[in-house]
Write a structure and sequence with these properties.
Jelly Rolls, 7-stranded antiparallel beta sheet, 5-stranded antiparallel beta sheet
């Protein structure tokens, strides 16, 4: 009887471990702030809050898909309005614009107000796909804190 109990426990313990291996882990990150990448149209988000799976590179601002599947991708940009009355950026997948962030105010001189824009979407990514934020207007004026962020989260891996 002892043998049967040990065997039953081994099966129960092995099932979650096997399922974990079948899903090949996780992938999720959240980074904020902004770094202008000189000589490039892209921006990076250097203050990494977490980077489960290590798929985000804070130096380049590139998320590289390691696990094919369905992903939730979001980003936000923000800045004071004191030097321009609009901001714009694009979420890019493999260099191709997918979604646009855009915000405009009529009063570019109102120092008590700021402008921001967010974008989010669900995407099916393949292994090796690259996700970045780029072609930004006035990127040197972006708020270097929690108003400017980038996040990718694996919702469901392809099996």
């Amino acid at each position: 009887m002892q043998y049967l109990s040990t065997f039953a426990c081994a099966i129960i313990i092995m099932i979650p471990f096997t399922q974990f291996n079948c899903f090949a882990g996780t992938s999720a990150f959240l980074a904020r702030g902004v770094t202008v990448i000189h000589g490039s149209e892209f921006i990076a988000f250097p203050q990494v809050m977490f980077n489960d799976g290590g798929d985000y590179n804070k130096s380049t601002g590139v998320y590289t898909c390691r696990i094919p599947g369905q992903y939730s991708i979001s980003a936000g940009i923000g800045k004071p309005t004191t030097q321009t009355n609009f901001i714009e950026c694009f979420l890019k997948l493999n260099g191709v614009e997918q979604l646009q962030m855009f915000s405009y105010t009529n009063d570019a001189n109102d120092v008590n107000d700021g402008i921001s824009s967010t974008v989010s979407g669900a995407f099916r990514l393949k292994q090796g796909d690259l996700v970045q934020i780029g072609r930004c207007s006035h990127q040197n004026l972006f708020h270097n804190g929690d108003l400017t962020y980038f996040s990718v989260v694996l919702i469901h891996p392809d099996i």
